[in-house]
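Case study 2.
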Amino acid sequence: MIVLGIESSCDETGVALVETAGTRVPALRAHALHSQVDMHQAYGGVVPELASRDHIRRVLPLARQVLGQAGCALSEVDVVAYTRGPGLAGALLVGAGVACALGAALDRPVLGVHHLEGHLLSPFLSRDPPEFPFIALLVSGGHTQLMQVEGVGRYALLGETIDDAAGEAFDKSAKLLGLGYPGGPALSRLAQQGDPAAFKLPRPLLHSGDLDFSFAGLKTAVLTQVRKLGDELDRRKADLAASTEAAIVEVLVKKSLAALDASGLRRIVVAGGVGANRLLRAQLDAACARRGVRVHYPELDLCTDNGAMIALAAAMRLQAGVQAASADYAFDVRPRWPLASLTEG
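Prediction:
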């Protein structure tokens, strides 16, 4: 079975092909990605209307590119998958519309995929794929969640952010430091030059006794430090970036370890854009090594939004018999869609 996946939930257009023939885990045949970062930089963030229009321009050329890379004819595609949600409504409609039009033209079924399920399952495309069950730390621009994952479509929410996500804390703190957009990667690069102990920043909910997160207070503390530093900010910017990153990472690592302890599981998956963070990987790897816990990540080029994770999630749902693809080409999108709602039963 060959699945064509289309991702268009925000500011990246992704298209990919995965194949399930004779493999326990679907294999990635080809993928292509276009990022809209350069277009949105002038505005300091994603402009939804511009994002939607750019998806329209990019999706079909990317599909042709992927088919060419894989040496696959469009007629060989068995299922067309797309991101149904969550995300920006207009951007989601582009991917859904193109996928359903392709499905109708080819007389092939289509499948709408949950964006976060794509992230959660994306490490199955890595050189070191996980096995069920595991704890999943989903950390992206708009989501920070801990899930207990028993299998495809069997997800229990253990904790989530009550305000800003970790990715938002990175981006908003970077903006306060004048680092531009996208801020998270810029802050992490600058942090490598600074002292993570230079500023005492809060670790919200670190000792709350539950597995929820909160990063809005950290952002406020960074703002307070920026104002206190005044003309000294440029000289201390790297230290403040390092201290901010250290605070975010400490919370993510300790909450993840607490989730492992509470569940008794010995395996954790980290997925989403923040999962590419150098410090997070180093500290979580070290902490889990001491406990004899296995850690799995997506390949770095599959940490951000991409079509491969959408095609993979669709293929794994079909393989597991959790969901059937549909030949009804009427579609809707779900800009707000809790991942835990996918759980079977």
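The chain has two domains: 2-121+302-342, 132-297.
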